[in-house]
Write a structure and sequence with these properties.
The chain is 18% helix and 35% strand. It contains seven helices and 20 strands. The strands form six sheets. Strands 1-2-12-9-4-3-13 form a seven-stranded mixed β-barrel. A five-stranded mixed sheet has the order 14-16-15-17-18. It has a two-stranded parallel sheet with strand order 5-10. The model has no long low-confidence stretch (mean pLDDT 96).
């Protein structure tokens, strides 16, 4: 008999589902993602640290999870070396999987990483609740083992997901100093395709002691204002001639270092199909995004 569990939101909403993955209770921030594929990449994205992820696409698990091949000391098919989410909520979990590169089932992988999940949840209704009320705290409760609500944004999540020491990738012409606030592996992969040497350093690293041709500030989880050391380092770096580029959290940190402000979005942008407009043109792009904070244009 399949075990049941509850998803409980801080507004009092309760949904009963069936347990898959790790059989344990967990609390976090409940967010939704509208991507139709790519759950191995989403689950290992450090930007999801501390969050309970809801997939709006109904069928999850049908292609299992890929092998652990690596290149340049990074897993080829994942965005980091482990699952980063706290819990997973889906409508229909497929216990059967089929893919030429599948090594194991999604459930086996989640069990190995001690990540609980629920399926047979009405994710359409759940997503509507989050869209109307905004992201909120929640918890997955299994075997009546209740846990307290927990707000991961009160912590410095970047410190949890950043590397602890400097790492170097490649041997290209251009030296890119990458401040790791939770970087996705694919960002480093694409840099390495462009004749670069990547010097990956922790979020609080003293970047003034490194020589580089360009400074890159990565994506990452949580409230950018928790990264006070990174912001101070960027204030100094702005006085140098080398170009600086930030993605997602990195862009928000650059804004804070410039004197601007950031704010928490109602329900964030988390998808592989997020439309954006190019400034001063009529061009539109479909982008992959994952962030819950934004720069205040005012």
């Amino acid at each position: 008999m399949t075990k049941t569990g509850k998803l409980i939101l801080e507004d009092g909403t309760e949904m009963i589902g069936k347990v898959f993955g790790y059989s344990g209770s967990i609390a976090g921030e409940v967010v939704f993602n509208t991507a139709m594929t790519g759950y191995p990449e989403s689950l290992t994205d450090p930007s999801y640290r501390g969050q309970i992820l809801v997939s709006t696409f109904p069928l999850i698990g049908n292609y299992g999870v890929p092998n652990k091949d690596s290149e340049n000391s990074m897993l080829t098919h994942y965005e980091s070396d482990k699952i980063q989410i706290s819990g997973f909520i889906v409508s229909d979990y497929s216990k059967e999987f089929s893919h030429w590169n599948a090594e194991k089932s999604l459930e086996e992988w989640m069990q190995e990483n001690k990540i609980p999940g629920l399926y047979d949840i009405d994710t359409r209704t759940l997503t509507k609740i989050i869209r109307e009320k905004g992201v909120m705290l929640g918890k997955i409760v299994v075997d009546e083992q209740d846990v307290d609500f927990h707000d991961p944004n009160q912590e410095n999540l970047v410190a949890d997901v950043s590397v602890s020491a400097k790492r170097v990738y490649g041997n290209g012409k251009y030296r890119i100093l990458l401040v790791d606030c939770g970087v996705k592996n694919n960002i480093i992969r694409h840099f390495l395709k462009r004749d670069t040497t990547i010097i990956r350093v922790p979020w609080d690293y003293d970047i003034s002691q490194e020589e580089y041709d360009g400074l890159f500030i990565s994506n990452g989880p949580g409230d950018p204002k928790k990264c006070d050391i990174t912001i101070k380092n960027l204030e100094i770096a702005f006085n140098n001639e080398e170009p600086i580029f930030g993605i997602c959290l990195g862009n928000q940190l650059m804004a804070l270092a410039s004197g601007a402000d950031t704010y928490k979005l109602k329900y964030g942008h988390r998808s592989h199909n997020q439309p954006v407009l190019e400034a001063n043109s009529n061009r539109a792009y479909i982008t992959s995004q994952n962030h819950g904070y934004a720069v205040d244009n005012e």
